[in-house]
Every structure is written in C-alpha cells, then in structure tokens.
Write a structure and sequence with these properties.
With about 900 residues, this protein is α+β, with helices and mostly antiparallel strands. The protein has ten helices and 43 strands.
C-alpha cells in the first residue's frame, strides 16, 4: 500500500501512521486489525459474510500472517493519521484482486416513518421519454419473453411488438421462470431511460422493489376438460405445444384453445394457418376466413400427413389483427420442414420465375418456391438477377405415406413479392472487385450483391470453372461455360460466396474479351504441398505415381510426395494412362483444387487435387526401376515364405531329432538292461554249475562212502547220520541250483519242479502223492524272485502237511484259472481241529507273508477229521 500526499511524493505507508481503535473506549494503539479467510473465489467476495480462520494484529499491510499461499484472502481494518489537510492519493497493488474502502464501508439507513406508495405513472414499452424523465415511479405492461435469476432476485425481458425493456425485481419471487415465461404481466417500479440507435430516449430498465409490484394479468393455465374429452387430457393453449406432440400423442385428440392471427389460406379451401406468439399451425376448416383476422379457435389435435394440426375446429372472430413479424429462415430450415405453417420472409436472387413459382438463389443455396397465387405489382414477369423479398406462409412438400419431407421445393401460401433491387442489365455497371477486396470492409457487401471480376481462365470443369485474377485464384459456377477454354481472358459477373479456400462466384455469367498464354505455374516445394492460398491457381508439382483409376469420364492419377498423397484429375482415354507405368516420377502442371470441407486453419488443408487440362500437362521425369515396390514386395514375400517354410522344416526336424533321441535313449537303456540281465543270468548259471559240480560231487562221494560201511556196528549209526545229512544237503543244493539257474525262469519249469519235489519229499515220508489236473503249463517267463518265493511257500506247506496232519495221502493240483496260477495241496489228515492252537501258526503266517510279497495270495480250508487244503495263487502278467 503506497500513498502520495500534498507535500511528499509516493511512498510506502509508515507503521507510525497506522493505528487501530480499542473498541468502546476512545483509546487508540498502533497497528491494524486483520482477518484471514480461506476459499476459492473467481471474484473478490464479501468478507463480511464469511468466517475468518485467523485473526490478529499486524503493524502494516503485509502477507506474512496468511495461512496458505493459494485460496486465501486478507482483510485489514484501521485508521490512517493525516498530518495536515490536503489531497492524498492511495495506491493499491494486487495480483488476484483487491479493494480499498475509505470511511464507512456500508450505507446506513434509518426508517423514520412509513407511508403509502405514490401513484405510479403509466408508461408504454418503446415510448419516447423527455430528457429529464429518469427514475420515474411508473408502471407498464408487456409479455415476458425471457426470465433469468440474478444475485438480487429475478430479471425479466418484457416486449410489445419489437419494443423491449429489462425488468429487475429485488428479493424472492413466488413464481418460477417457466411459470412466468410467455405471460402478460404488469410491473411497477423505477424506470430508467436510455438512448437507442436513433438517438431517441426510451424506457430501458424498470427496477421493482419487491415481487409485490409484479402482477400476472394472464393467469397461469390450469388443466381443463371438455365433454368431448373423456380421457381428461389437458387443454393445449399454444401452437408450440401442439407441434411438440409426437404422432401417437396427436392421435389422442388433445383439446386445443388458441388465439392468434390468420396468416394464410389453403389453396384448396380446406383450412388456414393460424399463428400465435409461439409459432404457426394448420387448422382444418372449410368456412371462409380472411388473412389478418384475429380469432379464437377450439379444436382437437390430429397427426396430419406431416406435422400435427387441428381438426373439428370452431372459430370465433375477435376483430382485426396484425400479421406477425416474419421469420427469416436459413436454407436448412427451409429444407428440413421445421418451419412448416410459419409466416416467413425469404430474400434471394431470381434465377427463374413464372406464375407458379420462382427459383431463388439464397445465401445458403438455391430454393424453388411454389405459389398458389401471387400478390404485389412486381410479382409477375420477374427478371433474372432481381433481388426480391417474398413473404408468406411456408409449407413443405411431403410424402404422405412415409410422413417425410421432399426436397424438391417448398410452397408459399398467399405470397407477397417485393423487389428489393432490380437487376442491372449492363454487366459493366456492376461494382468491380478483386479477390483481395472481397475481404475488405464494405457496408454494402452481401452474398446477394452481384459483382464483377476480370481474369484468365486456367481450367474449365464440368461444374466449376477456375480463373486467376493476378496471383489469386477464383472459382465460378455458371449455367453454361459456352466456348470457354483455358487461356481466355474473361469478364465474370456473379454472386460472391466466401468461407471456402478461394472466392466463389455463383450464378455467374462470363464474357470472353481475349486470349493469352497461361500464366507461369507456381512450383510447389517438395514435402510442403498443402496450402489453401494456392486454391484455383496454376501450380507445378512432382510426385511418384502409385495408382490409376477411373471416375466417370475422368481419369485419376494417385501420386505420392513423401508422406503426402494427392490426386491429379484429367479427361483422357485408358490407352494414355497405360503409357504411365506405376512408380514413375511425374511432373504435373495444373490447377490446385482444395477438397471442399477439408480446409483448415492457418491455410492448411488435408487433401487437394491437381486439375489437368490435358495429358500434355504430364511429364515423366524418371521411369520406375526394375526394383519396383511391387516386385520388391513379391521378392520379399517369396523370401519370407521360404524362410517361414525353412523355419517350420527346421522346427519339425528338431522335434523329430528330439523324439528320435528320446527313443534311442530308451532303446540304449533297454539294451543295457538286457545285457546286464544276460550277464547276471550267465553269472547265476556259472555259480549254479560250480555248486553242482564241486559241492555236489563231494557230497555224493561222502554219501557213497557212508554206504560202504563196515561191520563195525558202533560206527554204523554215525555213518547213517552222515549219509542222511549228505542226502539232505544234496537236496538243498539241488533246490539252490534250481532257484539260481536262469533256464528255469518259466512257468513250465516251476510246475515240473513242484511236482518232482512233492513226489520225492512225500515218498521219503511214506506218504502217497497223487497228481491231479492238467500239468501242460504255457512256456511263460517267470521272475526268478517270484519263482523262488512261491517254491519256498509251497515247500513250507508240504512240511506242515508232513509234520502236523498225520496224513497218509496228499493230492497235488496245478491249474491256470483266469490270469492266475493256482497250486493246491489237499491231505486226508486230522485237520486243524486236533492241532494245538499255536502249533503251525508261524508256518501259516510265513506262507501268507511270502505270497503277499510277490503279489499273490494264500488260502487254507480245513475241517476236523477231514483233512486240510492249502491253496497258493500267483498272478500272471
């Protein structure tokens, strides 16, 4: 905070010049009171309504007591000591907003008495006021055309005809904006005037102290029903509400009660159009009504063939009315049918006229208006290029079955044609402008003002012709280009249209004035081919031909320059294009044409064409090398295919090698196992043979010597024992040799040995052995371990029969049952009933354990006095 005084220059306010009050006392102390607030504001807020987050005392205006750097506000209060009377100037600097108050910050008002409101003066909207008529306590009436809330209450716009005034109401209002919109109201308040564009002072703003000064003259609509409305549908009171109905809703027959002005009559006498303050509406009615009458009608809604309408209508004539202000539709509104039955005014240039209608050129495009009848002295025999204004009721043509609009044209009921500007017969009398001058200020400039240009034709197309005016390009559209050819010097008159890449003259007329060589073409820099300023001018450009195609009678050359693709268009035969091989580098001289709708900002465009006058504008700079892109792609594709096949073959080969490696590994392991097994069997056979040869011969010799005993009876008993023991050892040795010999690893060998062993063993014990069953067993290999364990279990069974059963006969049975070998021992002994409980239990458990070890099973069946049967089962794999 800086200050400048009567006797000192601008400087900072000193701490000694600031002080604050101590409240109720008159005492003062140095410093300022401050309050700190937090929040996010777009404008400087009223800190009086906010709660501070921090308060205190500070020596001067500073920011160090703030609670944060952003979203914070500070308020200072205190006094400044004035050393002497004079003029003081304060300087306040802030980056986000600040305000300085000197003296009291708010107006203080005291109520001393109350009285009635004064009698207001009646004013009219649009009324002319005297110079001294301001802040008048007055009242006025008007229709609410806009409503919006503001910080003090409510704002409205009232209108009567074209005159309007803004109304401000302070405080709360009991009506919502939608309820007030479109209502006729009376407002009382202070009226402020303002000068309009004609320098006349009229009412501009009416400020009402409260909503009590607002009176709605037209009451808010309430739902009504009629005897013909059994469904209880609400009564529609505006044309806009009728047109908002969907077809299925209009079919319900909503009751309608509307007041409005008759704006047009049907040419076939089946109805008329009525327009209220919202919009126009077609009414089916056969009695005669006059255009301009103000009427009230009641009826029912009907979907109609295109838009909702009224049927079964009753009309009450209220008096003379005034036609509404006509709408001025855009070209799109004319074509889409949204303004059907509306009172409109269309301005355009006559392109053709007769008693049935007129062809107009409007700013948006051409429009064909059809008349039922024409009024106005100028309506008949309108000349070409005449500027006219046509008022009437707009009706679009539609398809009655599809309920859709037809785009061939529109109808005007009861049209009134006014000539705004007659056509100028002499082209030379038209204002002359260059393309650059079209962009300069001209208060008479209009897309419907015909102008003249002179230039040289550079391209003649089927629809658009291009010419150059100096260095600028211009396009023009004419009904016929006649004998115009590139190089002609012409005068062209037409209606300008801006907004494209280059100026366009519509409905043009061209007159040839000479001929000259075509202007020098501008060479476009490589890599920078896009610029809307070059539109409709001659250019020279290079590119590589990538493709050719057809478009009607034209032939298209698609070229590429770097990342930019563009098209060259020429009228030529197919045989000419065949002389241009793909991949050639070409030089083209033609007219630059920006594609419509693709021009952008900063003179940039996304797509353009080059318009060629003939194939002589094409020059081959370089023919394509043998290594064209297509051939390169073919070679690369072939190599890629070979590479893929090679990769697949290598992958398959690698997989085959891996599978063969695994197979060979398994075969090697199998052969190693077989060789190892053969070596083991060979070693077993050798050990068995050695045992048989050496140990067997020795034991046999001992047995023979024991048999040659002498008469010495004392030693005879010992010799018998030696002989018995030797025979036992021979038997045990035979078992060992049989178990170890690989040649006995078969089922057939097992069966034979079991029979042999049982017969030999039982004969020694004087027990008869009967063999039962089929002993022709298959020659199936048998594991040596399983064979030995099975034999030991069988041997243990025989021992139990001999030692515990007391049997005199044993029946041996060997059979193949399913996939199992079953060996049975059945005796005729005493059975288990006479045997002590513990006798033989270890033998039975041992046999069961041995059989389970090799995956087999042991079973025993016995009855006291009837013998015992032992069964041994061995699975065969």
């Amino acid at each position: 905070m800086d200050i400048e005084g009567p006797d000192f220059p601008r400087r900072k306010i000193r701490n000694s010049e600031l002080f604050r009050s101590l409240g109720q006392t008159n005492s003062e102390t140095p410093g300022l009171d401050y309050r700190c607030y937090e929040g996010w504001w777009t404008d400087l807020p009223d800190f009086g309504g906010l709660k501070p987050v921090k308060t205190g005392i500070v020596d001067n205006f500073e920011l160090r007591m703030r609670t944060r750097d952003e979203g914070v506000g500070l308020e200072f209060a205190g006094f400044f000591e004035v050393a002497r009377p004079g003029r003081y100037k304060f300087y306040l600097t802030s980056d986000d907003g600040s305000r300085l108050y000197l003296g009291r910050t708010r107006v203080q008002a005291d109520i001393i008495s109350q009285d009635e409101w004064p009698i207001p003066r009646h004013l009219f909207i649009g009324q002319i006021l005297d110079e001294n008529q301001d802040d008048l306590w007055s009242w006025l009436e008007g229709k609410v055309t806009d409503v919006w809330p503001d910080e003090d209450g409510l704002r409205m716009e009232l209108s009567v005809g074209r005159s309007r005034i803004e109304v401000g109401i302070t405080g709360p209002v009991s009506w919502t904006p939608p309820e007030l919109l479109g209502k006729f109201v009376r407002v009382t308040g202070f009226c402020q005037g303002a000068y309009n564009s004609d320098g006349v002072k009229t009412p501009n703003l009416l400020l009402a102290p409260s909503s009590r000064q607002l009176e709605v003259i037209e009451t808010l609509p309430t739902p009504k029903t009629t005897n013909g409305n059994p469904a209880g549908l609400p009564v529609l009171t505006t044309a806009a509400k009728v047109h908002r109905l969907k077809r299925e809703e209009a079919q319900l027959g909503y009751p309608v009660d509307i007041q409005g002005v008759v704006t047009g009559r049907s040419p076939v006498g089946d109805g008329f159009t009525l327009q209220d303050s919202t919009r126009g509406l077609f009414v089916e009615y056969t009695n005669l009504v006059q255009v301009g009458e103000f009427v009230e009608l009641t009826g029912q809604t009907d979907p109609g063939n295109f838009a909702p309408m009224l049927v079964k209508s009753t009309v009450r004539h209220l008096g003379e009315g005034r036609l509404p202000e006509p709408l001025r539709p855009t070209w799109d509104q004319l074509m889409n049918g949204s303004l059907t039955s509306q009172f409109v005014e269309i301005e355009g240039i006559v392109m053709g006229a007769n008693q049935n209608g007129v062809q107009l050129l409007t700013p948006g495009g051409p429009v064909h208006l059809r008349f039922n009848e024409v009024s106005g002295s100028e309506a008949i025999d309108l000349e070409m290029n005449t500027l006219v204004q046509i008022r009437g009721v707009l009706h679009v043509e539609w398809n009655a079955e599809a309920h859709r609009v037809n785009l061939e044209g529109v109808w005007m009921w009861d049209p009134k044609v006014t000539v705004a500007a007659p056509a100028k017969a002499d082209m030379l009398s038209l204002p002359y402008k260059t393309p650059g001058e079209l962009l300069l200020f001209d208060f008479q400039a209009s897309s419907l003002q015909r102008i003249r240009m002179s230039g040289q034709i550079v391209h003649v197309g089927a629809e658009v012709c291009c010419m150059m005016v100096g260095a600028s390009g211009v396009r023009f559209i004419a009904n016929s280009f006649g004998q115009l050819v590139p190089g002609n010097i012409v005068d062209v008159a037409g209606y300008p249209q801006l907004g494209g890449a280059s100026s366009l003259l519509r409905q043009a007329e061209a007159i040839k004035t000479g001929h000259a060589s075509l202007p020098e073409a501008r060479t476009l820099p490589a890599g920078h081919l896009v610029n809307t300023e070059w539109d409709a001018t001659r250019v020279q450009v290079e590119g590589v031909l990538t493709e050719t195609s057809k478009a009607g009678s034209d032939r298209l050359l698609i070229l590429q320059d770097g990342a930019q693709n563009f098209v060259a268009r020429v009228s030529a035969g197919d045989e000419v294009l065949q002389s241009l091989p793909i991949g050639s580098r070409l030089e083209l001289v033609g007219v630059y044409a920006v594609q419509e709708g693709r021009q952008g900002f900063n003179h940039q465009t996304g797509s353009f064409e080059v318009l060629l006058n003939s194939m002589s504008d094409v020059k081959i700079l370089a023919r394509p090398p043998w290594w064209t892109l297509r051939r390169l792609l073919v070679v690369v594709g072939t190599l890629a295919g070979v590479l893929v096949i090679a990769i697949l073959w290598i992958t398959q080969l690698h997989r085959t090698v891996e599978e063969r490696t695994v197979q060979l590994t398994k075969e090697i392991e199998e052969r190693r196992r077989i060789e190892q097994h053969r070596a083991t069997e060979k070693e077993r056979a050798r050990v068995a043979q050695d045992l048989h040869d050496e140990l067997g011969s020795g034991l046999t010799e001992i047995s023979m010597l024991a048999a040659m005993r002498t008469a010495d009876e004392g030693s005879s008993q010992h010799l018998d024992q030696i002989g018995d023991r030797a025979r036992d050892m021979v038997t045990a040795l035979d078992e060992i040799v049989w178990a170890m010999s690989p040649k006995h690893d078969s089922l057939e060998s097992l069966g034979s040995y079991l029979c042999l062993y049982a017969d030999r063993f039982l004969k020694l014990m004087n027990i008869t052995c009967n063999l039962k069953g089929t002993f022709e067993l298959p020659a199936q290999d048998l594991n040596s371990v399983h064979r030995h364990e099975f034999f030991l279990a069988f041997k243990e069974g025989l021992a139990n029969v001999v030692h515990h059963s007391g049997a005199t006969e044993v029946r041996l049975s060997i059979r193949i049952i399913g996939h199992r070998l079953r060996v049975s021992l059945a005796d005729n002994g005493s059975g288990l009933g006479r045997v002590p409980p513990t006798l033989g239990n270890d033998g039975l458990a041992s046999m069961r354990i041995r059989m389970e070890k090799i995956g087999g099973r042991f079973a025993i069946a016995s009855k006291a006095g009837r013998g015992t049967t032992l069964r041994f089962y061995l699975p065969l794999h």
